Amino acid sequence: MQLIDGKAVAAQIKKEIAEEVGRIQALGGKIPHLAAVLVGHDGGSETYVAAKVKACEEVGFRSSLIRYESDVSEAELLACVASLNADADIDGFIVQLPLPPHINPDRIIEAIDYRKDVDGFHPVNVGRMSIGLPCFLSATPAGIVELLRRYRIPTAGKRCVVLGRSNIVGKPIASLLMQKAYPGDATVTVCHSRSEDISALCREADIIIAALGSPHFLKGDMVKEGVTVIDVGTTRVPDPERKSGFRLTGDVDFDSVAPKAAFITPVPGGVGPMTIVSLLRNTLLAGQKVVYP
Amino acid sequence: MQLIDGKAVAAQIKKEIAEEVGRIQALGGKIPHLAAVLVGHDGGSETYVAAKVKACEEVGFRSSLIRYESDVSEAELLACVASLNADADIDGFIVQLPLPPHINPDRIIEAIDYRKDVDGFHPVNVGRMSIGLPCFLSATPAGIVELLRRYRIPTAGKRCVVLGRSNIVGKPIASLLMQKAYPGDATVTVCHSRSEDISALCREADIIIAALGSPHFLKGDMVKEGVTVIDVGTTRVPDPERKSGFRLTGDVDFDSVAPKAAFITPVPGGVGPMTIVSLLRNTLLAGQKVVYP
Lengths: 293, 293
Hints:
In chain A, the strands form three sheets. Chain A has a six-stranded parallel β-sheet. Chain A has helices at 6-26, 43-59, 74-86, 105-111, 123-131, 139-150, 170-178, 198-203, 254-257, 271-287, and strands at residues 2-3, 33-39, 62-68, 92-95, 159-163, 187-191, 207-210, 227-231, 235-238, 246-249, 261-264. Chain A contains ten helices and eleven strands. By secondary structure, the first copy, chain A, is α/β, with parallel strands linked by helices. The first copy, chain A, is globular and about 55 Å long. In chain A, 39% of the residues lie in helices and 17% in strands. Chain A has two domains: 27-119, Rossmann fold, CATH 3.40.50; 139-272, NAD(P)-binding Rossmann-like Domain (Rossmann fold). In chain A, helix 1 packs parallel to helix 10 (271-287) and helix 6 (139-150) packs across helix 10 (271-287). The longest helix of chain A is centred in the first third of the chain and has 21 residues, at 6-26. At the A-B interface, helix 5, helix 7 and strand 6 of A face helix 5, helix 7 and strand 6 of B. Strand 6 of chain A pairs antiparallel with strand 6 of chain B.
């Protein structure tokens, strides 16, 4: 069993991005600038946004954090998006989800200029990804693909089971893994809450991407020997022994699955760190106008 | 075995659309107007476009056919698209594919105003479909979904195998059948040229959508009893006994598969007629500004 060390890969990619920023700086080019919009004080969102800002600093990007209280109106938020769209100094920006219930997230996302949509959530980027055109890939699926690539895990013709059909993980990773490319060319099955006999499907899989948000869902008796397991789950489970009061728990029962796996990601330290570097990479590409000249 | 009669369903839907056009006319509303752009003289394209124009007439739509010789430049075609985008009288339009090799089809499709993209090929419509937002569904997957609905074929929790991963059939029908809806909620597997052991996967399937373009690929020994089979294949196979010199041949070996199937579409007369009514329906929706107000 080989552990897929997302933390180490993420650190390596950050180093590569920092070097690229150094080159840009040496040539007198524009330093990439990411803006993050944070509404309210949700604990998870605070943590994620702080990590994104910190990652920008680490690689030498500029970053701006724009905060609103949770009673901000949709109109105000749309005005903020419009001003970020128009601001030539901002290369890319994200609006951290979830948003308060009185704000329609689809409306906000669609208002973002897709050329600055470094989260890859805008329909233009989702559609271009599905068709196989250059686009901003959304961060988690891009991070998964990068882990498969860096660990040279074969995917062509392999049976791949994706657990979960969310718009931000399940659907896009399924789309990426079935495309004519590497990583890709896999025979992909998407399972979800309505699927029957998920165990049997998983037992046939060479690669399992678990993105249900259901702690320890995937058990050792549901996988075959030699499987590659990517665990996207990050459920906060209460843990009085931790200072934070919780621990991040994956969708995979690591202790029973790992002994049968050829490759497996831990939680934390697997997909999580990759998500942020995907965002950094998109911001770099946005600054260089590579995807949308 | 019940034959899924696409021709009869299509005729019924055309009748419903014609009635709607009658109501619009009675209220003094605007009659839907579809434009089709045809480049060159490809036999298949000529036939498809003629059928689309004829279908418009049958339901009382207005239609315009714009023709170019195959040496038209990309710039000229883009100018045509721009003028159709700007023409308030045109509710929706299509550019018939394939285009000559010197024209980039992606560039043409992306130039179409997505609010007039009744073929559903624009990245905005592809992306919105994937996310589950209102959009123009592309014609063939929309036709398949409508057949499943009209024949009340259960899909929730069912194993569905999609043969083929094209942008216009395989990927979008997979996306639709996995979404939280009816028809949908299926456990979808997408197979393609790189997939191994397609027979075994097909034998586990409750529903098979065959869209490979490989005549008679799916044989009776590859399906289980009670399967529902939707045949999207329409390969022209030479046939000297026909006046046209060819016959349309599906991806399904009908004679061996039909005896085991609960439901099956014939070729021709299955999915084909539904494709055109999907286009009519999108044009009706475009005229009524239902999808994009």
